[in-house]
Amino acid sequence: MKVLQDSKALRTALSDFRKGDKGIGFVPTMGYLHEGHLSIVRQAKKENRVVIVSIFVNPLQFGPKEDFWRYPRNLVRDKALLEREKTDFLFVPALKQFYGPDFQTVVSVKALSQPLCGITRPAHFTGVCTVVLKLLNNVMPDTLYLGQKDYQQFRVIEQLVKDLDFPVKVRMAPIVRERDGLAMSSRNVLLSSIEREEAAFLYRALQKAEAFVRAGARDAAKIKKMMREELKFIRHGREDYLEIADAATLESVVKLRSGTKILAALAVFFGKTRLIDNTLMTVE
Fold first, then answer.
1. Would the N or C end of the chain have less CB density within 10 A of its end CB?
2. What is the pTM of this model?
3. Active-site residue 236, yes or no?
4. Residue span of the structural domain in which 125 resides
């Protein structure tokens, strides 16, 4: 595995791989890797000739009172995990080089950035769009791989790529969960033991939503009420949002309609640690 910090060096190193039947797959991350990340790397390895992973904790997507400095980091461990997966390139851009002292340009996707996480994190997806576009310009991959756990991020980036005619396919990888259902996240290590135990109720709330929809429930308000019955078991956290939304537009749904794809999504704060989770369902 080649580890590079300089974007020009990365483009030079990748120039020999831009021909052939299989292409270049790219997995952007903020590091502190877990099985969820590694499963995406494996998917990319199966589908591409060469795979690049980036590690960059992006300050633009953190608000002034959010956990940028608390976000877990362990580059030595991450390198070892990626070596084990036979990753071809690791791109670790230096912050001062990536965002120069005169950096002024940002990119945003308007409507998709506003609901769900965008309600309490209004600048978050502008930071996400800006960093992803810069990374895509550096890597120039054929396929970009993102995880379903950050489903809103996936939709925002999918729209960004479409709107700006960027020549890259965007693929979504499924959520990988712990044995008790908690979605794997780099932030999970920040939880206390009691918070970690209670965090499992996020997935149980989503399971309850799935069960109610399969049983024929079509009133979104009633489904959300049943989900909140599970969240009552969380004594050391507070709800940020809980929503039933259209999977394409992310707009809130009132009545579920047969044949539509919906997203049940929620976010919960445990102290300063914010966890998100979701499930996708097709209404029969």
1. C
2. 0.97
3. no
4. 2-173
